[in-house]
Structure formats: C-alpha cells, structure tokens
Amino acid sequence: MSLLCSLLLALALAAAPGVQGACPAPADLKSEDGSRTCAKLYDKSDPYYDNCCAGSVLSVGPDADLPYLPSDWANTASSIVVAQRCELTVWSRAGKGGKSRKFTSGAYPRLEEFRKGILGNWSNTIAGLYCRCY
Ligand SMILES: *[C@@H]1O[C@H](CO)[C@@H](O)[C@H](O)[C@H]1NC(C)=O
C-alpha cells in the first residue's frame, strides 16, 4: 500500500463517526474502576475540537442527582459526553433553577455552541444536574 493510501486510511479512521476531537465516544465512557458512567463533564473546551474535553473531569454515575454541583464545578463545565442509553439534564442555577436542558447520549465538545435562552450558551453555566440511564 502506498504511503498516500495509508495516510488517507488514517484520516478516514480519525474522522470515524461518534468520535469528536479528544472527547471519548459515548460507548467508551467508564470510570477507572470499570463501573458504569452516565456522563463526564470537562472544564476545558477549545476552538479546536481536538483540544476539547480537556482539563479536570467530573464523572457521574447512573441516577446521579446533584442539584448543587461541588463548588469547584459550579458554572465550570465546557465539554460533556453522555454515555449510551443515558440522558443528562442540566440546570443553569443551583437547586435545579434557571434554565434547563436535556442532553441525550453523545459527545458535546463545545457547550458554547448550545443556545441557552436568546443570548446565552451552556458553557460555564451548569450548576446542577441529573443523569439517568435506561
Ligand atoms: C457564550 O457565553 C459566554 C458568556 O456569556 C460568552 O462570553 C461567549 O462569547 C459565548 N460564546 C458563544 C459562541 O456564543
């Protein structure tokens, strides 16, 4: 196989559906001890998709109900990945107040691309969450 062919193949693999930049695929979400993970939140996104899902990580399990995120995580998440057959509901204010939105299974490298109300977006604004799996 020529070098060009291998190169094209590598590019095709890199662009496989379900993989968005550095974010793990929803099917690959697992915590370190192998238990089921419902979603992962990351504190860093980036104009380049390859650099998203970076920084600190908050893993939440199925049925995680966090009306108040730990203080170092309030209004911090910039990228999220929701595991297969799971759904993450987020709120913009602590105590499940403010605006809310559901994210179905998938990788969301740049939360700022998701509209919150007329002017806002969902980057650095998640203050509470509920995650469930089927
Ligand atoms: C997202 O919202 C933040 C804070 O309101 C703002 O600074 C940023 O420009 C917005 N980004 C986009 C892409 O709208």
TrEMBL record:
Which keywords accompany this UniProt record? Cytoplasmic vesicle, Disulfide bond, Exocytosis, Membrane, Signal
In the UniProt record, the signal sequence range is: 1-21
Q: Which GO terms describe its biological process?
A: exocytosis
Entry superkingdom:
Eukaryota
Q: Where is this protein primarily located? A: other
Q: Where in the cell is it found?
A: Zymogen granule lumen; Zymogen granule membrane
InterPro entries according to UniProt: Syncollin
Membrane topology of this protein: Peripheral membrane protein
Q: Which Pfam families match?
A: Syncollin (PF15138)
Sorted alphabetically, the Gene Ontology cellular component annotations on this record are: zymogen granule membrane
Q: Does the keyword Signal apply?
A: yes
The answer to keyword Electron transport applying to this record is no
Chain's role: Functions in exocytosis in pancreatic acinar cells regulating the fusion of zymogen granules with each other. May have a pore-forming activity on membranes and regulate exocytosis in other exocrine tissues.
Q: PANTHER family per the record?
A: SYNCOLLIN (PTHR17503:SF0)
- The name of this protein is Syncollin
